[in-house]
Amino acid sequence: MDLVESYKDEMRLIDKPWKGFWIGLLLMALLLLPWLGDEYMIYMVSLVCIYSIGVQGQNILIGYTGQISLGQAGFLAIGAFTLGHLSRLGVPVLLGLLGAGLAAGLFGLVVGFPCLRLKGPYLAIATLGFGIAVYEVFVNSQTLSGGRMGLIVPKFSPLFGLSGSAFYYYFSLLIGVVFTLVSFNIISSYIGRAFIAIRDNDIAAEAIGVNLTFYKLLSFVVSSFYTGVQGGLYGLLMGYVEPNMFTFLESVTLFIAVIIGGLASVEGSIMGAAFVILVPHIFSSYKELVPVAFGISILLVLIFEPLGLYGRWLKIRLYFRNWPFR
Amino acid sequence: MAVKLLSVNSLAISFGGIRALGGIDFELEDQEILAIIGPNGSGKTTLINCITGIYSPDRGQVIFEGESIAGLSPDLVAQRGIARTFQNIRLFNNMTVLDNLMLGRHVKFRKNPFHAVLRIRKEELVHRERVEELIDFLDLHAYRKMRVVDCPYGVQKSVELGRALAMEPGLLLIDEPFAGLTSEEKEETAYRITEIRGKYKTGILLIEHDLRLVSKLADRMIALNYGLKIAEGSPQEVQRNPGVISAYLGNE
Q1: B85 contacts in A (CB within 8 Å)?
Q2: ipTM entry
Q3: Which of A201, A209, A212 sits opposite B91 (nearest CB)?
């Protein structure tokens, strides 16, 4: 069943027929969601789609390249406000999103340069400083942030006769799927191998000819591009952007999503995104206890599954594959 | 006179007040196996680190295939065609043996980011063929898809050699290839090193403590002590040199 007959077959994304079947089923369920779920559910799943983009970007930087970063809120804000200003100028949404990603990516390059020689906690502090600096700039600059009321992002009219929320949902899903595919492709290419080489042993990576400067910066740029697009999509969904959406807490949430989902796995990134969106929602009826419940559930996952949700998923799969033996 | 593969001229480096290398000269011919011996701390590994650009020497020249490479960063040195292995294995632990060897092809890879993003893998296939040849040569079939950390020590040593060979280097620097191996593995590695010279036409600079094996392998030998060259010549000559004997055994 799993017989591989050529090197080419081995490099396919969907390497087993069953995998294709399950992915097809999942996509089908996601496509039918607007008929199955209510407005609120559609909104939540849109959020998960949007979030998973940024978490994947984070995972490329933290999980694959091994560079810790805590300044994601800065890139989110840059992406969101870039999209906001561009769409107010009448730029089409897709171009606006591209602009949001590119603007964030450019800042990723700027931040990445001084951070090249930093490692571990030092890098975390440096990027943290960036996130807070961006927040302060937006808070204090009326022209950038659009004043006290925030920046209104014009809604674009739904196409194909869909309702507003369903259309935004499909749009986020489409972009989420595209970015997921791109993540899989990047990490299985020579670029991904170079990233992992830097994480596992930077001295050896350099000795076999991997240009550390280039690939570290590339990782920064790619992850900030992802985060910028996430920011842009978030602004679109909300209909407005204001600096308080992008506090330090937002960076931490993205970081948690990476760890909870599982370092260095794309599937895990999506699970992590779902976790940080849905878990607070499950506890939402307890009001002020939400952060506590969220915190405890994070602790539980990390204690019982240090490899994150993806690690647990692999174990579940193994259990059923071997069933009824164990 | 033909250009030497590698010539090192009065190479020196100090760390703080400690003189690690105090002006080393030597040359290495095409397809020659040159062994460097010396007691612990005599500067053997420092010498390799200076050649590969991990340290930049205080003075002196390193000329590879007629061009000066002293002070270049390690990745640029690697691109010129110098590959190395490390004394303490430095592999990419969480990757498979196959991926480690594929990383060795990094310098030969024609890189196209669009192909990477759009999953066009033509180039990948070309290099996979070469890596499979290496897997044949090093007898790593059983470990191809295993994570490197899960492999036995001897296999890890082979993988590291394979990763260096995958670069198709003009010069291969091998730092203690026999350390920690069983006697069978030592014999096999020794055989492979001679095989590499014939098959891949590389010059080899070898650091090793096992004098019995080294004297069988090496064409020439250099002995270092306290960062200075104390003897050079055929393995027999060097081992009989009174300076070398006193460096290893002390004076009466």
Answers
A1: none
A2: 0.90
A3: A201
> Total domain count for chain B?
2
CA distances in angstroms from A295 to A201, A291, A310, listed in the order given: 33, 6, 19
CATH code of B117's domain: 3.40.50.300
Whether the Cβ atoms of residue B169 and residue B81 lie closer than 8 Å to each other = yes
> Residue B196 has which token pair?
């590499």
Which residues of chain B lie closer than 8 angstroms to A194, CB-CB?
103, 106
B162 and B226 share a domain?
A: no
Residues in chain A with CB shorter than 8 Å from the CB of B86 are 203-204, 207
3-state helix, strand, coil in chain B (%, to 5): 40, 25, 35
- Cis ω for the linkage preceding B39 (within 30 of 0): no
What is the C-alpha separation between B221 and B241, in angstroms, rounded? 12
Contact B116/A210, CB-based, under 8 Å? no
Instruction: Name which residue leads in pLDDT, A312 or B149.
Output: B149
Is the residue at B130 inside a domain?
yes
Last residue within a domain, chosen from B168, B188, B221? B168
Block means of pLDDT (10 residues each) for chain A, 326 residues, are: 70 78 88 84 92 94 90 92 89 91 94 84 89 88 74 75 81 94 92 93 92 93 95 90 86 89 89 88 79 83 83 84 74
d(CA A186, CA A191): 6
Residue A15, chain B, CB below 8 Å: the answer is no
Domain that holds residue B29: 1-74+171-180+201-252
CA–CA dist B12, B9 (Å, integer): 9
Give the dihedral sign, CA A34/A39/A41/A45.
positive
% of chain B at pLDDT higher than 70? 99
DSSP of A127-160 = HHHHHHHHHHHHHH-HHHHTSTT-EEPPPPPPST
B23 domain residue, yes or no: yes
In a domain, B151, yes or no: yes
How many degrees, rounded to 5, is the angle at CA A112 between CA A308 and CA A119?
60
Same-domain pairing of B39 and B145:
no
Nearest to B146 by CA among B91, B192, B85: B91
Q: Is the pLDDT of residue B1 over 60?
A: no
